[in-house]
Amino acid sequence: MPLPSAKIQVYAYAGVALLFLAVTIGAFTRAYGAGMGCGPDWPTCNGEIVPLTANTATLLEYFHRVAAGLGFVLITYTAYLSLKASGDRGVKLWATATIIALVTQIILGAVVVWYHLNPPLSALHTTLAIVTVALATGMAVKLSHTRVRG
Ligand code: HEM
């Protein structure tokens, strides 16, 4: 069955762009030693949903999380539509693998701060970032080669 709308391709690439932004801000977070900018708190940032009294370190870590969160929303919606509406086995495989990697990465991000930037965990977070972005890009490319409706 064709997917519901060509918009799904836009959602997929926008999700990839947001993950790329999360990776970029993550790199700055690491480079500026701002990994504990939100303290050991997750999902809150220094105990707040939106940190109102923020310094540079807090802003870097906070916007890293915001970009990851927005990317998560778009990628999850794209994967949901793909699983629901596509009869293409390849699309379903890319969508499932992407969601597993992204959810694991977000949980790992939380574990990294709970364990105060433990080096092996932090290195794993960087490694999984490459895998996650690669899978999300693969899903977007696969979707752009799949027949869609609308
Ligand atoms: C809300 C969930 C997330 C949290 C709480 C989180 C947390 C962190 C923290 C604390 C750092 C700094 C690590 C350090 O200084 O050692 C970091 C870096 C980084 N994060 Fe995340 N992260 C999250 C989601 C993501 C996602 C979804 C991606 C990519 C798909 C990502 C990619 C990266 C990258 C590439 C770095 C830079 C690592 C480096 O340059 O060494 N993060 N993250």
Overview of the structural elements:
The structure is a single chain. The protein has four helices and no strands. It is mostly helical. The protein has one domain (7-144). Helix 1 runs antiparallel to helix 2, helix 1 packs antiparallel against helix 4 and helix 2 (56-85) runs antiparallel to helix 3 (89-114). The mean pLDDT is 94. Residues 19, 22-23, 26-27, 29-30, 35, 42, 61, 64-65, 68, 105-106, 109-110, 112-113, 117, 122, 125-126, 129, 132-133 line the site of protoporphyrin IX containing FE (HEM). Protoporphyrin IX containing FE binds at residues 19, 22-23, 26-27, 29-30, 35, 42, 61, 64-65, 68, 105-106, 109-110, 112-113, 117, 122, 125-126, 129, 132-133. Its main location: membrane. It holds the Pfam family COX15-CtaA. Pathway: Porphyrin-containing compound metabolism.
What small-molecule ligands were found? protoporphyrin IX containing FE
Our count of helices gives 4
Biggest sheet descriptor: none
Rounded mean pLDDT is: 94
What spatial form do the alpha-carbon principal axes imply?
elongated
Whole-number radius of gyration?
A: 16 Å
Strand content is: under 5%
Percent helix, as a range, is: over 70%
Number of DSSP E strands = 0
Low-confidence stretches are: none
GO molecular function, one term: oxidoreductase activity
Pathway: Porphyrin-containing compound metabolism
Subcellular location: Membrane
Pfam family, one: COX15-CtaA
